[in-house]
Amino acid sequence: MKITRKEFVVSAAAFAVSPMLAAGGRKMRTPLMLDTKRMAIWDGPGIRTTFFVKGCPLKCIWCHNPESIKPEAQWARFQHLCKHHEHCTMDEATCPTRALKLYGKPMTIGEIVAKALEDKAFYDQSGGGVTLSGGEPLFFWEWAAELFKAFKAAGLHTCLDTSLYAPSAAIDALLPVTDMWLPDYKADDDALHVKFTGVSNKVIRENLKRLVAAKAKMEVRCLVVPNCTDGADLAARHAYLNSIGVPESSIVNLEYFDYARSKYLALGLPDTMPPKEKSVRRWTVGTP
After folding, report:
1. pLDDT in tens, 242-270
2. Among 17, 69, 225, 251, which is least packed, fewest CB within 10 Å?
3. What pLDDT, in 10s, does the model give residues 19-76?
4. What is the model's pTM?
């Protein structure tokens, strides 16, 4: 039976706030899903399927997935594609120019695992697996732990792409079922971190130490945003990571792109993305 757009959004919102129970019978926060990227090659080793959750406690000014910040379902209208038809049905499936996009759809753990297993032959041949990204997966850490348990039961290699802005209990819950961690380290200076992401990096730094102490396999990503987190702060990030036991071989500097501006417009959000500079000299730690 076909459901209306309004009925779908209502059901999606209900899914976001209620369905699963944590240990002890407490309600477990569960996410809506944003997207599934098959044949991914930048989200961990080998060929992977990456699942994106919707919802993040950070508000990074350079966020390239602004649709992932709010945990609720959101409609977007891409103005450069929209023809402003007088009889617009606000239906993503039938929009002839694909100007409409609904961000955030329900998906059960069983459905996610089944989707992941569709490409298991590619994982086995390439040493790949599945990656959970977002948004912030640890915003839903109890649910993420259950999902990863299901992935492991299915024989899948797991990666977690995370800001590490989460309680220590989240790290403890995910450590046994996460084969590789892909944490971001967005800024070393705490004042800069608060300015650019809306939160302190103190919890993040402690969680990085927890991963090092646990001898977790990880690749720390340092995004290089021109005139924000380049230069001295980039060097400071590397120095801090080295000081807690993260070798240079496990640190990757990521180039910044501002391609997401159309998403901000489509969502009706102010465009906070810093401009993209052509010069890349400051990527290298230690260069002027």
Report:
1. 999 999 999 999 999 999 999 999 999 99
2. 17
3. 455 555 567 889 999 999 999 999 999 999 999 999 999 999 999 999 999 999 999 9
4. 0.86
Could you give the angle at the alpha carbon of 49 between the alpha carbons of 45 and 51, nearest 5°? 120
In the chain, beta strands by DSSP E: 20-21, 27-28, 32-40, 48-54, 74-77, 100-103, 129-133, 158-162, 180-183, 220-224, 251-255
CA dihedral for 254, 255, 259, 265, sign (positive or negative) = positive
Contacts of 94-97 with CB under 8 Å at 24 or more apart are: none
Say how far apart CA 238 and CA 246 lie, in whole Å: 9
**CA-CA distance, 27 to 2, in Å (whole number)?**
30
| Domains observed in the chain | 5-283 (3.20.20.70)
Contact yes or no for 220/183 (Cβ under 8 A): yes
Sign of the alpha-carbon torsion through 231, 236, 237, 238: positive
Closest alpha carbon to 229 in 208, 259, 255, 206: 255
Residue 225, class by beta-carbon neighbours within 10 Å (0-12 exposed, 13-18 middle, 19+ buried)? Answer: buried
- Residues 44-55 as b/e (b if ≥16 CB within 10 A, e otherwise) read bbbbbbbbbbbb
What whole-number distance in Å separates Cα of residue 169 and Cα of residue 5? 38
- 220-224/129-133 β-pairing: unpaired
Residue 91 CB neighbour total at 10 angstroms = 12
